[in-house]
Amino acid sequence: MADTHVHSHAAGGAPGALNTRHHKLALYAFLFVVLAHWAEHIAQAFQIYAMGWPVPKSKGVLGLWFPWLITSEVLHYGFALVMIVALFALRKGFVGRARTWWTVALVLQFWHHIEHLLLITQSSTGVNLLGRPVPTSIVQLVVPRVELHLFYNFIVFVPMVVAMVLHTRPNAEERAQMQCTCAVPATV
To answer: Of 5, 58, 148, 163, which has the fewest beta carbons less than 10 angstroms from its beta carbon?
Structure first.
């Protein structure tokens, strides 16, 4: 028997609807954006490590046509901001184990956001960390930027995916607490 228990009202207006009747659609839309971002980072890594391109010429797919996009700290900060806002906005729709994992992704993304805030501040003011020739994040002092961003995206993405899997396959207690239609039908 499929469990179709979903609260009929969206308490709290639009934010409530985002985490109830629109939660599944919002999660899929967010996942699409995250995967597109991942594809750009993977394309850039491929250009560097498989094709042997120098880092300044390796700009992913979009960067081949719009190089100014990839060199803009505004784009990178904007994406970090979108990530943290989406992780925060969609968090209320999660329960139990899934909420714990989603919160881990949110906390990790908060640090990633701080690093991008540091970068855009340096880019905007022209004053770089420790007198470096280019804007530099804290962890970038020991890990090169391309590899660091692959790492940051990975450590945020993994708990996010774990959360989504647990969210779509809740245990009985979690299923009873859910207010959205994200869960797959319960098996007998």
So the answer is: 5
Q: Identify the pLDDT of residue 160.
A: 97
* Residue for token pair 């995916």: 161
Residue 175 in contact with residue 186, Cβ under 8 Å?
Answer: yes
| φ, ψ at 112 (rounded to 5°) | -60, -40
**DSSP-H helix ranges across 11-72:** 13-18, 23-49, 62-65, 67-71
Residues of the chain with pLDDT under 50: 1-11
Q: Which of 172, 23, 46 is nearest to 94 (CA)?
A: 23
Neighbour count for residue 40 (Cβ, 10 Å): 20
Buried b (16+ CB within 10 A) or exposed e, 100-134: ebbbbbbebbeebbebbebbbebbeeeebbeeeee
How far apart CA 104 and CA 155 sit, in angstroms, is: 9
Determine the pLDDT at residue 8.
39
Distance CA 70, CA 77 (A): 11
